[in-house]
Write a structure and sequence with these properties.
homodimer
């Protein structure tokens, strides 16, 4: 029996492949500060649990393939707050943003067709592309200008007759970058001129700091039939384990085709959607508080790491990630070493090597992604461990 | 923007595509007895709800990609009852049997590679194959011999260098057929001789009547590294809306590769898995009672429909479906007519046209699938509506 090439060629998740090592480190009595994965430490709102604990039907039968209606209504109201208007049949509920991305790639691309991505990009885009036999074509962005987009010509030079879409996250994972209105308008122009879809992963929409203007791709009227919005409650409401995501698009034909795949997999879990509906219906105060908390963490981690001779980075304006350029040769080696060989008072830090966020691996070789998803006290300890660890590591290697 | 051919070519779910019509019929005040979909009316056990209502964590973070450990342990114990032995890393929890099937097809087949299926087969196999660019090659079985397998040569004649696996459900959906030990042994021989995987969809394992011997593909030792078992709590525990399925295989390399895809989509919902673990840990009595109930329904529907001049079928020995051969030209037309134009005391019946369960559509043109998932009183009324409806329909067309 031969296993498929598409899966054999698929890389292990750079975020998860060190989980085995981490388990052993924990067993040896070392506390790990996990900054390697975007799994927030913010409490899931009680509204979620209350809704679930109040929910009981005699028979937990199949739900609707498009999603739990109350959740779709709640999301319609949620989008209205951003002046985004989606009809009922322009929304589909999915098993997390993950399923949403897979469904869209399958529906937009045939075998070996291409999507434009901006590296470093959310690493799992690679995996979704592998499974769907789609080829990500990466345009490299640089830490030097905060990972903003290159000139239009550099982007269009990579477009071929096989290109079907541009895929990006905004606010950016792993960069924290917020694209300006000009950047979104430029992508809109490219989509129009080259007949492409825009797949806009906006799961970090709430996390925009410094009073920056946030421009959703869905707000650009002239490409409204080309835009597909990926969303999720995971980060927004600190409910990663509920696996509730969504697809929104004004392109009804596209949505109708995606619905066929949804019907084929029948439905997503009802109970988690009941919880998610309660979250979207809940008070805005939670989101405001969470944003303030992440902003504080961002300021703290910036103040702690800024100026360290072995680390360079630009303060990002969104999401809860940052990419650090380290003055070493091999960030993956450093991350493993930090996890297994270094600790302060029996505590160490786990980071994500950034190579997995690139197609051109060499550009990420000296970088790590840090998710500031722990409280300020822990982040402060983590910063010290990273700085001291780097100093020690550089003496050794 | 062009939508992918693979999704454009994907047929609408034959089980769900009439949902829109059904909604309108209901709005007009007609009660529909839904025998078109395997969505049981049996109460979901309280153990499920209790576990969920007792579960609360401060943060609903990501779960493990392979599944909730307590559920994996519970499934190991469950399989032991059938003398099937799976290590922890030989089990993966999925979003229903649906995701399980997609994951396995992606991992076993590359673009345009083939799987052998026996038609009529579970219609959604078509959709999973479309999305993964896999080609189902159907070998037709006949209602005349209860949809048992044809001779070995007929099966092997369809095997090409591109064939990677044989996929079937046993007990069968939509046929209710239980394969004999000889049939499973024959498939094992074919898998060995032609280097194929066996993808054995055993979600109806509990529903075997007439004291028939049930032979799981996983019990055949000489192909243990070739067998992949698809499972689900949906029918077993009447919890279709929980979306908890699983993959089990002694082929550790295969499981390792599937785990990579699971890591890429992060995890399945924790809460539903907590409920599922409670179900697998619960008393066997529920399963025994449910089986007895379905057996009673099977006997009733058999007695009611057997002998009708317009219906022919063989009494099936498993699952909760049967395929009826109708003495008409176009079963889909009849199903629509029955739903929209016929009722007795403002009540009608919805069936699934069988064409969607075939690759060679012409063989299913006069057939419907009936799911006996309503109680005996309703089934009795449904049988009368079907018989009277058929009589009337034949006068009209």
């Amino acid at each position: 029996m031969r296993i498929s090439e598409r899966i054999l060629n698929m890389p292990e998740s750079p975020v998860r492949k060190m989980d085995g090592i981490a388990s052993k480190v924990k067993e040896s009595g070392i506390n790990i500060l996990h900054l390697n994965i975007g799994d927030p430490d913010i409490k899931t709102p009680d509204a979620f649990w209350q809704a679930i604990h109040n929910y009981k039907e005699p028979i937990l039968g199949y739900g609707k393939s498009e999603g739990y209606p109350e959740l779709i209504y709640a999301m319609q109201r949620y989008y209205k707050k951003f002046n985004l208007d989606f009809d009922y049949d322009e929304l589909l509920i999915t098993s997390g943003g993950s399923e949403a991305l897979s469904l869209v790639l399958s529906t937009v691309c045939d075998y070996q067709e291409e999507i434009i991505v901006f590296e470093p990009f959310y690493t799992n885009y690679n995996g979704f592309a592998d499974v769907t036999d789609v080829v990500p074509i990466a345009i490299t962005t640089s830490s030097k200008n905060g990972f903003h987009l290159p000139a239009k010509e550099e982007i269009t030079s990579k477009i071929t007759p096989k290109t079907k879409a541009i895929l990006f996250s905004n606010p950016g994972n792993p960069t924290g970058t917020i694209y300006t209105k000009e950047e979104i308008e430029m992508l809109a122009d490219i989509a129009l001129e080259h007949d492409l879809f825009i797949i806009s992963d906006e799961v970090y929409r709430e996390f925009v700091y410094d009073n920056l203007e946030y421009v959703s791709s869905a707000s650009i009227d002239r490409i409204k039939d080309r835009v597909v919005i990926i969303d999720s409650i995971s980060k927004r409401y600190s409910a990663c384990g509920a696996r509730v995501g969504s697809i929104a698009s004004k392109n009804k034909e596209l949505m109708k085709q995606i619905l066929k795949i949804c019907q084929n997999r029948l439905c997503t879990p009802t109970i988690d959607q009941v919880g998610a509906a309660a979250l979207y219906n809940a008070d805005q105060a939670f989101l405001d508080d969470v944003k303030e908390e992440y902003d504080n963490r961002r300021n703290l981690i910036y103040d702690e790491l800024n100026g360290d001779p072995n680390i360079s980075f630009i303060k990002p304006a969104g999401a809860f990630y940052l990419i650090l350029d380290l003055d070493i040769e091999d960030a993956e080696h450093f991350v493993t070493w930090l996890l297994t060989e270094f600790n302060i008072d029996n505590e160490t830090v786990m980071l994500a090597p950034a190579q997995g966020f690139y197609t051109h691996k060499e550009y990420g070789k000296k970088q790590v992604r840090l998710a500031y998803i722990l409280d300020c006290n822990k982040l402060k300890r983590a910063a010290i461990i990273i700085k001291e660890g780097l100093k020690k590591y550089k003496e050794l290697y």
